[in-house]
Design brief:
By secondary structure, the chain is of the alpha+beta class. 42% of the residues lie in helices and 25% in strands. Strand 2 and strand 3 (25-35) form a beta hairpin.
Amino acid sequence: MTELFDVDSIADIGSAEINLKVNGQPLPGVFVTIAGPEHKIRKKYALDKARRMRKQLARTGKLELDDPVDEQADETEHLADCVLAWRGIAKRGVPLECNRANVVALLDDPSKGWFRKAIKEAYEDAENFIARSAVP
């Protein structure tokens, strides 16, 4: 008899606490909670972006691309919205509060490109936002 797969053994989760990685290596004790694809923040962003594109297409008949500087600023704002919490992050030995201003500052800091890349990689990895209650 064939073993059946229980669809309830896997579920999408709204957010996940992720051990940040740099160059594929986990940073010991550094965890960031990020909104997942099913989180209301990400869903609203995706729907708003699609609506803007459709509205522009309906108005002009063409799809115009945004300036790359504007796209990066938009991405920064969105990533900052999606960083819900963190722990283990300090600046000059002092714990750094997880608030919008600090998140944006780290994402925009040219000397902290590794941070932006780590956040984007965690954000884009759908596996981070799937919970498994059983292993088949």
